[in-house]
Amino acid sequence: MQLIITLILGFIFGLGLIISGMTNPDKVLNFLTFNKHWDGSLIIVMAVAMTIMMGAWFWLTKKDTPLFSEKLSLSDFKQVDMRLITGSVLFGLGWGLSGICPGPGLVQLVSLKTEFWLFFAAVLGGMWLTKKV
Fold it and tell me: Which pLDDT tens digit goes with each residue over 88-112?
């Protein structure tokens, strides 16, 4: 049952990325670039996503146990260090230069376009390199 719900939620998430335009690198780059082609519509996407997440977070933290586990395992990590800052900067640079975020990039793999496969290979390479360093 958990696998079925996970697949359904993943499908809904991917569909939401496609409908909102988050899988279109040009739309994302037009949002990140303040010029005559600036497209602020992704602010609405982010606001809706944050609202849903806040509601889910408040609901989850009030429950004794989650739906598919024995106990809640929420991170208590609150330290901002150079590793977090460096990772955030690299993530932002990669997103800003390519217009592709890892989630929408994963969704775009079904398009079979070379640039998305190269992007995802770079993401996997970065993850591998991080573990080595």
Answer: 898 888 888 888 888 888 888 888 8
Residue 13's CB is within 10 A of a number of other CB atoms, namely 13
Alpha helices in 33-113 (DSSP H): 42-62, 82-98, 102-108
- Contact predicate 98/25, CB 8 Å: yes
pLDDT at site 89:
92
For residue 20, which of 48, 59, 53 has the smallest C-alpha distance?
Answer: 48
**How far is C-alpha 69 from the geometric centre of its chain's CA atoms?**
24
Q: How many CA atoms lie less than 13 Å away from 73 in the CB half-sphere? A: 3
For position 128, what pLDDT does the model report? 92
Whole-model pTM: value is 0.67
